[in-house]
Write a structure and sequence with these properties.
It is a multi-pass membrane protein. The protein has 17 helices and no strands. The chain is an all-alpha fold. The protein has one domain. It is globular and about 70 Å long.
Length: 456
């Protein structure tokens, strides 16, 4: 597909056909990414409750790596979509190359500092004395993979932002399937324990990285990260970080929130750490499908905003919000009904893990449908370059509301407060996001009316 054909597709194809076409590959990619963590959690949980807790502790580390990759990838990707829509290809190339090489450098710094301070790191992430040995075994391997994992996340977002979501799906899916196969082989077959789970993950991620690199280099009409386009110029980083700050807020605070959750749960024992870790993975798996759907919406939104087709931006937003609400309503009902059996799949030998996790899962399912408004609303503001409002909605869930809740509620209500913290944060985030998005939609309607008058 030539650039002109792609431009025509993005600004003329009916929204109810275009977004599903772009979203299906991204949904699969996000689900597979979530399966990386789900597979590790499931297989490692068969070892012991402490080992299961170690995966939860290292989730915070994975979130740090994702924060770097997604911030640079989505920040540059959203900017690239707008520039391609505005036919400013040179600026798009600059953002592409700068994001890739910056991600590798930051991943390398994280790896070196993390490995040199691994003991202090796992304690800081919330490991108890019994969980710490498992957490160190797992964390060392994850840190080794940090440089190429960050670049993989950038590549994924760049492919999606250019309307090539199917290509990103190929690399992610291959790695995910490989991870699921290798986990039981290395953990149980070769008796490598939790180290086997980590090795399976980083090897699978490396395979994904190589596939994505080949696809980016060899695919036509995909911007390449040539070194000659890399620049330290302030305007490039300003544009990348302006669009990427909501992601940095969301991903960075997700890591911080995970640390606070682990620390709070550790006061109630390893069973509480393991239970909340499992619940977090389950909810991430559900939300990953919605995020994948939203990432099919983002390039359409950014491209049409750059092309001044504000009417299509609004149409895309309302279409995605309706679909997301129906999906999460169905998933919330199903997961509420099967919460106890789901927890048994992970840790059937530990009744305390099942009891704590099942109630926490039910509480979160009650607020799950409201996440459709939160996630799609945040993606709307981010895709059209409304950086401050996008950042505010992105940081509200984990930063403004969850961290204070997890610091206060367990002290007041014990383990029930631990389980209530996330649902309370979700409800407050919904209220704030709606207040912001209503104003953004009003502005877009005004812009659409003005553009219509100018064209007439």
């Amino acid at each position: 597909m030539s650039y002109e054909e792609k431009y025509k597709m993005m600004v003329e194809t009916p929204i109810n056909r275009l977004i599903p076409k772009l979203a299906v590959p991204t949904i699969i990619s996000m689900l597979i990414t979530s399966i990386y963590n789900m597979a590790d959690t499931f297989f490692v949980s068969q070892l012991s409750t402490s080992a299961s807790g170690a995966v939860g502790v290292n989730f915070s580390l994975m979130a740090m790596i994702q924060a770097i990759g997604f911030t640079l990838g989505m920040g540059s990707g959203n900017y690239m979509s707008r520039m391609l829509g505005a036919r400013e290809q040179d600026k798009a190339r600059r953002a592409c190359s700068t994001a890739v090489y910056t991600a590798f450098a930051l991943g390398l710094v994280l790896a070196v500092l993390g490995i040199l301070n691994i003991d202090r790191l796992v304690r800081m992430l919330g490991a108890t004395q019994t969980i710490a040995p498992f957490a160190k075994d797992y964390g060392r391997y994850i840190l080794i993979a940090a440089p190429y994992m960050t670049v993989s996340f950038v590549f994924n977002n760049h492919l999606r932002s250019q309307g090539n979501a199917a290509l990103s799906m190929i690399g992610i899916t291959t790695g995910g399937v490989l991870n699921v196969i290798l986990d039981p082989v290395l953990i149980f077959g070769f008796k490598m324990g939790i180290s086997g789970a980590a090795i399976a993950t980083i090897f699978s991620q490396f395979v994904s990285f190589i596939i994505l690199l080949i696809l980016v280099i060899r695919s036509k009409n995909v911007l390449k990260p040539f070194p000659k386009y890399f620049t330290f110029r302030g305007w490039v980083y300003k544009e990348i970080l302006s669009a990427g700050m909501p992601t940095l807020g969301r991903q960075g605070l997700a890591s911080a929130a995970s640390v606070f959750l682990n620390v709070a749960a550790s006061g109630f024992g390893d069973a509480a750490v393991a239970a909340m870790s499992i619940v977090t993975r389950i909810m991430m798996f559900i939300n990953s499908a919605l995020i994948g759907f939203g990432q099919g919406f983002q390039p359409v939104c950014g491209f049409n905003f750059g092309a001044k087709r504000y009417d299509r931006v609004l149409e895309a937003y309302f279409f995605c919000r309706r679909v997301a609400l129906i999906f999460l309503l169905i998933m919330g009902v199903i997961m509420f009904a099967v919460s106890t059996p789901i927890m048994r799949l992970f840790r059937k030998e530990d009744a305390e893990v099942i009891r704590i996790g099942a109630l926490a899962l039910k509480m979160q399912c009650c607020l799950l449908p409201f996440q459709s408004y939160v996630i799609i609303g945040n993606m709307l503001t981010q895709s059209i370059g409304y950086s401050f409002r996008a950042t505010l909605t992105a940081v509200s869930k984990q930063g403004l509301f969850f961290i204070p809740a997890i610091l206060i509620l367990p002290g007041l209500f014990g383990i029930t407060g631990l389980q209530l913290a996330q649902p309370m944060a979700d409800g407050l985030t919904f209220i704030l996001t709606q207040a912001i998005v209503v104003m953004v939609v009003k502005e877009l309607r005004g812009m659409a009316e003005n553009e219509k008058k100018c064209n007439n």
